[in-house]
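Thanks for the sequence, V.! I ran Bifunctional ligase/repressor BirA right away. Repeating your input here for the record:
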Amino acid sequence: MKESVLRLLKKGYPGFVSGEAICRSLGVSRTAVWKHIRALREAGYGIEAQPHAGYRLINIPDRLYAEEIAAGLPTGLIGCRIYHYTSLVSTNRTARELAGREAPDGTLVVAEEQTGGRGRLGRGWYSPCGKGIWCSVILHPPVNPVDAPPLTMLAAVAVCSALRRAAGVEAGIKWPNDLLVNGKKICGILTELSAEMERINFLITGMGINLNLTAADLPAELRTTATSVLIETGRPVSRVAVLQAVLTELEHWYLLWLQDGFAPVLARWKEFSVTLGRPVRVASLKESWTGLAEDVDENGALLLRLPAGELKKVVSGEVSL
Ligand code: BTN
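Predicted structure:
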């Protein structure tokens, strides 16, 4: 019900909406309206009240509330259900629990902060309150588990497009799915799969996108390797607007992948790549190689030209440029 009051205030913005009009439109008492206004103020909405004019919205909090994300979101699938939390250990962990309880395809889990954000290869992910997008999307792709790995590169394409379009940064993709700006990491993606031999139960795509962190917000050990939109452009960006762009792009590329396969996604991935054509070092869990990152194959594996001329196919690992 407080969402309906908010909708009316937004419709009336920047003017006043009378208490009586709200009561009439929602079929509730003056006391009920007042209670909802109080709840909205507690959630951070600025609402002016004037005895004869009614209520007027004066500001919207910088929070990733479900109703703010959903307002005007053009997607049908991704973000069809949104769970917002002030604080979580890890959105991937909560998404996994929700997926086990039948959360539908496209469900979004988002938190203002993570106290135990997880990264790839057992690392952590720094996720301070209100400074970025820390979120996970639950998917149920109707494919065999062996065909799921491209989804992690697909997510990178989606976030890269969204950052270029909605945040004005020239992000590029380091194989397989790190997003860099000027050589520093701005977004990391952690994809986790729950599957049986021939069937995917669910897949979680967790995205950590650094938006409004200053250099001073970053722990000293990350300052040389990490960046944010604010650091790169000097301007803070609307977290809601960037998240809406991410969800929109994710839906576009996901539906295209289901319909036409991985080739169109891979073509865009190559356009965004900052790895291909460069000398790199690749470390897997057991080995490491240096060579020229020549290409990726049709499944997204990195094709590395070793100094002796051999072409080495790498399916997982960490690239250093
Ligand atoms: C990486 O190491 O590059 C991947 C980082 C992924 C971080 C995101 S933040 C939201 C989601 N929840 C997590 O615990 N991790 C992912």
